[in-house]
Amino acid sequence: MNFKGIHHVSAMTANAAKNYHFYTKVLGLRLIKKTVNQDDPSVYHLFYGDEEGNPGTELTFFEIPNLAQHREGVSSISALSLRVPTDKALDYWSDRFEKLAVKHRKTQTRAERQSLEFFDFEGQRFFLISDEQNIGVKGGVPWEKGPIPKEFAIIGLGPVQLTVRKPDSTIRLLTEVMGFRFKKDFPSTIAGQPVIHVFETGEGGSGAEIHLEERNDLPMQRLGRGGVHHVAFRVEDEDQLYDWIEKINEARFQHSGYIDRYYFKSLYFREPNGILFELATDGPGFATDEPLEHLGETLALPPFLEPKRNEIEKKLKPLDTAINHD
């Protein structure tokens, strides 16, 4: 019962239109599903990924208009990373960010990989990381109709960084319950702070890592626009998800129970420092209700919300995501 890696990460935005522009036109990701938050269908839930929306490539956003700015702090998912094929690709992205006035820093070595730190239009923190030396979970397939040359394009999610005040309880959960393995440490770039611990699961590699940072100089995070809501880990199928439910019960963690998200099946719980974890199945996938060539072009609703389509569409600000296929 090992996880197959990172399934998806979900973050917060206050502006779906600007979010769509940045992640498709600047980063070159494909919008693979335009839908709504199933727990609050008055707001958008946007899913980005590779050509087919494969697990391990999915970056999603809940839109909450007028949401306050995220405040950095502990008990948070403090950084996400996106994989690119080679070290050379980072040079391409550094030039592109310079031309498009995207805030970024110089290329550096992070956990023995070349990486490029950058921030989106709402201040969300990312690292582009090179997969040139990567061994482990394979990346996805870049969007063929995207604006980025294939040899430089983003191929999936990389390590997720958690920032906590008391790491020991999180480490016990990762290693004793969730089956992660300690891999190595690497130094923090912040003077006087402890090393950052690397844990991996499944086949390992950049698509299957958690980076755990201890910080005692920060307040609790205040989740807002530019912040990350949760991280999800890949489970093979429903049978294995039920096995995980039993295991989480045995470990005495409160959880959501089985939830059908239509595109995948899920379980949610909070780790000891309060960060929200999700376990999500690889299938059925995002081509369940739309043809692959037209993913994300119109508003998709799961069957239980379809009878309320007119009511839902009236509350949503129109978002044009149609693609010219000529």
Automatic annotation (TrEMBL):
Keywords: Dioxygenase, Oxidoreductase. Coiled coil: none annotated. The keyword GTP-binding does not apply. Residues 5-131, 156-282 form the VOC domain. The keyword Oxidoreductase applies. It holds the Pfam family Glyoxalase. One of its GO terms (molecular function) is dioxygenase activity. Transmembrane segments: none annotated. InterPro entries: Extradiol_RC_dioxygenase, Glyas_Bleomycin-R_OHBP_Dase, Glyas_Fos-R_dOase_dom, VOC_core. This is Ring-cleaving dioxygenase.
